[in-house]
Amino acid sequence: MMTIKQGWQGRVFEDFEVGDVYRHPLGRTVTQNDNIWFSLLTMNSNPVHFDSAYSAKTEWGTPLVNSALTLALVMGMSVTDISQNAVNLGWDEVRLPNPLYEGDTVYAQSEVLEKRESNSRPHQGIVSFRTTGYNQDGQIVITYKRTVLVYKRGYVPEIARPNPEGG
């Protein structure tokens, strides 16, 4: 007899405690294609992101990863730990202290800064985090504060999952 086990469903409001730190489990190596495609898809026309000959003449000597891609990747890495059951309310204090380069691998962690009940939504709460992205050498490439509206236990909408065996 096969036993079906529930997969990770993400944290809810009650799971967060101020001071907790989540080291997000996955890293991601940024390729040249990632950087070029993201820059062109988002209409970022700065050649430092997609023109190697131009970038070679800059102080960095090589293309820089588009900062919006850095933000998107690091935020995405945090979803499984902090916002799988939430929606974004905003990002604040975004800082890029060091560049991320094509070929670098980015990792991330988040710390719970604040949490409170929602005044207008009794089935949800508001939680703020400080997220830090860093490269394979431990050099910080991005930090930001992110605030989310997260469901409380018992209120997370159920995901429709069809039974693959038809039963």
TrEMBL record:
CDD domains to which the protein is assigned, alphabetical: FkbR2
GO molecular function annotation: lyase activity
InterPro entries found in the cross-reference section: HotDog_dom_sf (IPR029069), MC_hydratase (IPR048274), MCH/BMMD (IPR052342)
SUPFAM superfamilies the record matches: Thioesterase/thiol ester dehydrase-isomerase (SSF54637)
Name of protein: MaoC domain protein dehydratase
Source species: Candidatus Promineifilum breve
